Structure formats: C-alpha cells, structure tokens
Amino acid sequence: MSATTEPSTESKESRLRSYLRQRAEDGEVYVKGKFIADDVGLSPKEIGALMVKLRDSATDIEIEKWSYTSATTWRVTRA
C-alpha cells in the first residue's frame, strides 16, 4: 500500500476524537480499544497509541487511563 492511500495519523486521530466525543455526549463513557477498533477502522494498537496522544492534546474531551483487565479501559468525558 502506498503512502498516498494510507490515512494520515492526523486523520486517524481526528476520526477517533470525533468518535469519542460522540460516545461521551451524555457525560462519560468507558471504552476498550479492542472493542471500538472496528467502529473507527483502526487496530487496537493504533487506538492505544492515539488515546495517549489525545489525552495530552484534546481540549474538547478528557481521557483517563482507567484500568487494565485483558486490555486498557479508557474513561472519556466531555471537557
């Protein structure tokens, strides 16, 4: 696959941010990357890396590493 057909990290990040913002619309949501991977078209590994990045950069949502039981659970709330 050429570099021109792969989504950029920025578009992956914005797609995940939009998804999380929508899911946390009512206040908060708990998610595991492996369960939302298909919803956003990313691998669980990509989601894990982007969650860490978004935790530090997103201003419209707050992301907290919540627990680890067979996969990391993230708590997402509206900022």
Characteristics:
alpha+beta, 47% helix, single chain, 79 residues, 3 helices, three-stranded antiparallel β-sheet
What's the arrangement of secondary structure elements?
Blueprint (H helix, E strand, L loop, with lengths): L8 H15 L4 E5 H8 L3 H14 L3 E8 L3 E7 L1
Antiparallel strand pairs: 1-3, 2-3
Helix pairs in contact: 1-3, 2-3
Describe it for me?
47% of the residues lie in helices and 25% in strands. Helix 1 packs across helix 3 and helix 2 crosses helix 3. It is globular, with a radius of gyration of 12 Å. It starts with 8 loop residues before the first helix and ends with a strand.
The counted number of beta strands is: 3
β-strand percent reads: 25-35%
Number of helical segments with 4 or more residues: 3
Shape: globular
* Distance from first to last alpha carbon: 37 Å
| Assembly context of the chains | single chain
| Contiguous uncertain segments of 5+ residues | none
Helix-strand category: alpha+beta
What number is the mean pLDDT? 90
Radius of gyration: 12 Å
Please state how the strands of the largest beta sheet are arranged side by side. Answer: 1-3-2
- Main beta sheet, described? 3 strands, antiparallel
Order of helices and strands: HEHHEE
Can you give the helix content as a percent range?
A: 40-55%
How would you concisely characterize the structure shown here?
The protein has 79 residues and is of the alpha+beta class. It contains three helices and three strands.
